[in-house]
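## Example pair
The file below holds two records. Each record gives the amino-acid sequence first, followed by its structure token line.
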Amino acid sequence: MKTIIAEKPSVAREIAGLVGASDKQDGYLTGNGYFVTWAFGHLIGLGMPEDYGILGFDKSALPIIPNPFLLTVRKIKKDKGYIADPGALKQLKVIERLFNQSNSIIVATDAGREGELIFRYIYEYLKCSKSFERLWISSLTEKAIKHGFDNLKDGAAFDGLYQAARGRSRADWLVGINATQALSIAAGNGIYSLGRVQTPTLALICKRYIDNKHFSVTKYWQIQLLHNKELIDFKSISKTKWEDQKLADDTLKAIQRNETATVISVETKSVTEQPPLLFDLTGLQKEANKKLNLSAEETLNIAQSLYEKKFITYPRTGSKYIPEDVWAEIPNLVRALQDRETCKQAVSKVKWGRFNKRIVNDLRVTDHHGLLITDKIPSALNAKENEVYDMIAFRLLEALSQACIKEITDVGLQVLHYDFSAKGCKIIEAGWRSVKGSFTDDDTEPVQDLPELKKGNELKIKEASVLEKKTKPPVLYTEAGLLSAMETAGKEIENEDERKVLQNIGIGTPATRAAIIETLFARNYIQREKKSLIPTEKGLQVYDLVKDRKIADVSMTAEWELALQKIENNDADVGAFQKEMETYASTITNELLQTSIVHNLPQLVCPKCKSQQLIIRDKIVKCPDEGCSWVQFRNVCGVQIGIADIESLVNKKRTSLIKGMKSKAGKKFDAYIVLDDHCKTTFEFEKKKMK
């Protein structure tokens, strides 16, 4: 017998159907010489401090450097502690029995770093020594699974992948456990969670927020002219930016008296815009955030669902290319899209026989190739799944199209002794931009058509006006912007070629970035303000404490990601990496324990018993007297209540107007939170002003 172990029951069922294991049992399927079982994700993980006999937050026990690291069954919270998950224990017993009854194992967990770790931790925990092979596939279609079984790989070929996954897991433990305990002990008023990746990411958000808030906006003025030639209206803008409005107004009057502008230069150049490459996961998440306002986690979950339904290839990919052997399948994928109503018109724009092979690069494909659709075309998806699927399908069609060729014209004009410029653009060959019919990028102004202009032409000024403009602060991060910053370790890189050089040096991996962002939300370190990510009071407090510490160093975290990639490729030693992480954990623990923390929390007396000083935490404000038991949760209808409003509620019986709260029905509302005579909170709505 052989045991096939998948990551999820749904995948196990697909595989079981193909290998003839149709007999359903508790926790597995069997038949035709196979047991097919599953892992329910991470059944086994690294032990917690209590598994080493360290209870609570004990300064004398820090730093905690396990030797050896213990593996434990997944735990769930119960009462005030944690117990082994009964469901995990039950499934683990099934897996152990099947392993013992088998001659060998086929590993069918997700083909990536975490999927490898899920199996290897189970294998190690059960002290199993059976030989195993690896099913390595990028799609769950019947064809892909059959091809994978015909080409099973030796399990040892993925030892580097496992070492990198284990190294990452242990590094996160060493930094997260020690840093969190050290800062929480130093703070003395609650839990302050820190992490190897989450803290540098928080630092990016906080620094950008502070830079934005401290930016001094200044006004300036430019003059805009409207011209007409050959029945074409077009505009020019002054190169001079006036800091004094009166000077701009005076110049405008002089220009209006002059009435004509002279063309002093005309420069025309041809620009070739190559089509975009296929999506990797981060690219898809950025696009879905910009266009559909989906969070990184939402996009990943939707993509995972599409993958499990066999409509797209493996989503957790870091590549934008495909290998040569996949190229032969591309025409069939395009042909299949002709049957999808939303894609018909776009498919008609693609030039058969002239597909662009720019996406083919064997050297740029590691674990998985760029995101592709499969030949199974969906017909019954929900709205968000349809939108994400079409995003992937349209990107494939764009990537296969030819370059877009534009003719860009820069015109220099002069009025009196002031220089003006006009820009024009003409599409010579639409190429890939014809797929969606969009000829400019979202963040650029539409470029105007220009008439035929020559040096020396005199142009009548139809209109002239002064435009008031403002200098712009660094924009707050959206999830798309943050994902870009994480990709490049925070470096502001506009140049595509430079970005390519640094694309392997980032924070996290495509597969983990969504979880990192969600962790910051769960810790109440960041919140959404429309599309922007901004830090909470607690997030800013943590940043202020660690911003000059090594744990917030973005570039160091990026270097570790690079080291893990080298371990994965068998180009570096995992033992040396772990030693470095142990030294680092010790250093930051000592740094954080010596942190001097000044608490600026107000001293508030309980409004109910009027005798006890309130305990203020990030999630709750409460009276320490159990007989009184007054409590106020800080998160009200999805909005975190700030310290100033807590102080106002206790002392003045009402907060300021709290905006953006959500009802159970999902509707947004604004209200004051008020304390009634029994010290219970109610809402008071703003009175609408009579017109």
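Second record, same layout:
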Amino acid sequence: MRFDLTSLQIFLCVAEEKSLTRASKRAHLALSAISKRIAELEHRVGSPLFTRYPRGVELTPAGQSMLAHTRQVFEALYRLEDELGDYSDGIKGQVQLHATTSALAQFLPAEIKTFTTQFPGVRLDIEERVGAAIVRALSDGRADVGVFASHTPAPDLETFAYRSDEICLAVSVNHPLSDRETVRFPEVLRHELIASHAESALYAQITQEAEKLGMTPTIKIRVSSFDCMCQLVAGELGIALLPRHVIRIYANSIGITDVPLDEPWAIRNLRIGVRDFRQLSPTARAFVEHLRAS
């Protein structure tokens, strides 16, 4: 089944105007030409796309499906036009990157810097998201590349090993646990915690591990950023579980320290995810290869 773009544009026009007459004026075509194009589309589809009324038309269920797919076609064409325009301006394309807070706080900034230094014309659009939202964005085509924790279900994606991080306990330098070599998770749960937002992969992991022990974390304060968590720990308002690298960024300046968490799950693996590596733009493929080689 093949469709030409002109017929699809006319169909879209009729669907939006809900009138053959108004669509003909908008498209600057004769009403008979509009009617003929719609009839040809309906014949090709094998089903009516519109229900005709004296004062206009309404989409049938088949027409509603056709409208959704037609909009996707034109959105893809607009993106293509935009990206090719970037090439003509000397820019080498665009990458939509969605990543977890942990990945953005630790590893990605340096690797994005080296990539954009090597390819200065590339534009990266970066969004911070939780793992499940990243997987959905990749599946829906709203993101080209994602970085998320390996325990996030992603059955329909291609994934590649990326980096590992270690979850440690962040405490103020004056806290009783600050001089410990390691700490077990049950002991951590006896203290009031500063936690990230409820949808974060890190918080989900903490609650899951607590449930296995038949315990519930006592959340004193919940904030949305690692920076705020560290500042609150430094203010001795609680303790927090955070990636070691993040804690050490703040350790010297605000008086916090990291205590290793003596649990096998404290070592987390991050993965790179894409919907279909072969279907990525050359720019997005180059970015994935850059991350994999880092």
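Notes on the second record: The chain has three domains: 5-88, 94-162+269-293, 165-267. The CA atoms of residues 257 and 271 lie 27 Å apart.
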